[in-house]
Amino acid sequence: MFQVFKKLDWFFKFYWKRYMFAIIALCTASAIGLIPPKIIGYTIDQIQYETLTWESLQFIILLYLALIVIHYTISYLWDYTLFGGAVILEKWLRTKLMTHFLKMTPTFFGKYRTGDLMARATNDLKAISQTAGFGVLTLVDSSIFMIMIIGMMGFTISWQLTLAALLPLPIMAVVMNKYGSAIHSRFMKAQDAFGNMNNEVLESIRGVRVIRAFVQEEQELNRFDKMTEDVYLKNMEVTKIDALFEPTIKILVGLSYTIGLGYGAFLVFENKMTLGDLVTFNVYLGMLIWPMFAVGELINILQRGNASLDRIEDTMSYKADVQNPEQGKQLRGVDAIDFNQVTFSYPGTEYNQLKSIELHVKKGETIGVVGKTGAGKTTLFKLMLRQYSGMKGSIIFSGIPIEQLELAELRNWIGYVPQDQMMFSKTIRENIQYGKEDATDEEIYRILDLAHFLDDIKQLPDGLDTQVGESGITLSGGQKQRVALARAFIKDPEILILDDSLSAVDGKTEAMIIQHLREERKNKTTFIAAHRLSAVTHADQIIVLDNGKITEQGTHEELLKQNGWYKEQYEQQQLERLGDSGA
């Protein structure tokens, strides 16, 4: 049960002063809280024996007021210090988790779904934070404070009465332990169900247009109802155990009260203790209710925190497929890129998506990459970005194998526009500034002209300050593509990869963007993957991929002479274009 504290010892060691102060202040406040019951018992005895004077009553009232002020001040200090530490832990873990996410490769995100990761970054972190705050409080109260109260009851009143009243405690310890084990396993299942529901909600929101288009609203609601029912049932299983804590403790506390009152009254009749001592004892017994509750709360909190920490550690322990080299080499410039017998298959598959790719690219060249859907174009680019490990053969940048380059430096040399453009829920200006953080509006407007987006900006309500909505929902497909192009253009990278990133624009716009691209990227390397061959006719080299292999290679003119797939596809597209013009 206490394993969670051991797992978090790195944090407690770092903030040991904060926690030491909080625990000492908490113990001090608890000790001060034990004084008033003794004063009550003393006052009752004074009244009973008719020895209470006005002066002593004034002293008692002033002492009470002083204790209230001191207790309040110390309680504020331990509360602020202890729970402030819990907030710091949550912040640290959330930062570590986010840093971990940013280092991960696509394989990781294939294993862990977005909704589940969100659940771990919210509910699980909150449960761990509770452990470092409320968990420490209940630990101190259920141990040190309880010992203080029992000590006061035994040493200052009666050991016989104290031992008799505490007979139910061993029973409580056994029962609480069983409850704790059940809480741990059930809470793990509840958190997993919550993660699955999160993921389904996320997918439904992202795909709301498709859901409406196919009139699947009712089916989605039914599916969501089933998932919420599953989450509800699993949380109810946790709640059933959670609900047993309080009544169990109340029964045991009631037994303690019964024993204390009955045996205490007998001792008073026997003149072995005073009436004031009996009142004080029962006040202490009442004060013992919270530490007894704290035992249950402690087990509950620790088991939830332990389950959540296990889930977080499971995520954090995942090692990225692609690691930075121990001693990375520096690139002074990319004079050439060589693909030597590059063969690759995705994790979990036996089929090779790329087979023996041989390609030599000189600085300043434009490389067209074409082929059927699923031929391996995107896979080739992902390997250039080192998104996957397990590649056979080698990719060499200016004589340095890609595995020997720092990941950040490699990707800093490359500008990438993927097939599926990702727009952040920010303004158009902020989305473009991901490519260059300090880009001025003048630079952005110039780049938007290159991306043929100036006319669109004028029509948008707030220009560059227009919010694009979640995943760019307020923009059309073509607009998103051109904003993504602008984001890559403004970076002005040494190597630019366009992965079918002109598919949503019309042929005339595509031609203008390509023309701007040729003018802007002289002496810089560009890779263009496209289904419309008009986007690559100007390329210095064009490779045709089919089933992961290069089946044709050369310039546009050379490929037309080969009478292969490229010529056939190009002529077909030209006929379609003429047909559209005639229509």
TrEMBL record:
<dbReference type="Pfam" id="PF00664">
    <property type="entry name" value="ABC_membrane"/>
</dbReference>
<keyword id="KW-1133">Transmembrane helix</keyword>
<keyword id="KW-0067">ATP-binding</keyword>
<protein>
    <submittedName>
        <fullName>ABC transporter ATP-binding protein</fullName>
    </submittedName>
</protein>
<dbReference type="Pfam" id="PF00005">
    <property type="entry name" value="ABC_tran"/>
</dbReference>
<keyword id="KW-0547">Nucleotide-binding</keyword>
<feature type="domain" description="ABC transporter">
    <location>
        <begin position="337"/>
        <end position="572"/>
    </location>
</feature>
<dbReference type="InterPro" id="IPR017871">
    <property type="entry name" value="ABC_transporter-like_CS"/>
</dbReference>
<dbReference type="InterPro" id="IPR036640">
    <property type="entry name" value="ABC1_TM_sf"/>
</dbReference>
<dbReference type="InterPro" id="IPR003439">
    <property type="entry name" value="ABC_transporter-like_ATP-bd"/>
</dbReference>
<feature type="transmembrane region" description="Helical">
    <location>
        <begin position="60"/>
        <end position="89"/>
    </location>
</feature>
<keyword id="KW-0812">Transmembrane</keyword>
<feature type="domain" description="ABC transmembrane type-1">
    <location>
        <begin position="21"/>
        <end position="304"/>
    </location>
</feature>
<dbReference type="InterPro" id="IPR039421">
    <property type="entry name" value="Type_1_exporter"/>
</dbReference>
<feature type="transmembrane region" description="Helical">
    <location>
        <begin position="281"/>
        <end position="302"/>
    </location>
</feature>
<dbReference type="GO" id="GO:0005524">
    <property type="term" value="F:ATP binding"/>
</dbReference>
<feature type="transmembrane region" description="Helical">
    <location>
        <begin position="249"/>
        <end position="269"/>
    </location>
</feature>
<keyword id="KW-0472">Membrane</keyword>
<feature type="transmembrane region" description="Helical">
    <location>
        <begin position="161"/>
        <end position="179"/>
    </location>
</feature>
<feature type="transmembrane region" description="Helical">
    <location>
        <begin position="134"/>
        <end position="155"/>
    </location>
</feature>
<dbReference type="InterPro" id="IPR027417">
    <property type="entry name" value="P-loop_NTPase"/>
</dbReference>
<feature type="transmembrane region" description="Helical">
    <location>
        <begin position="21"/>
        <end position="40"/>
    </location>
</feature>
<dbReference type="InterPro" id="IPR003593">
    <property type="entry name" value="AAA+_ATPase"/>
</dbReference>
<dbReference type="InterPro" id="IPR011527">
    <property type="entry name" value="ABC1_TM_dom"/>
</dbReference>
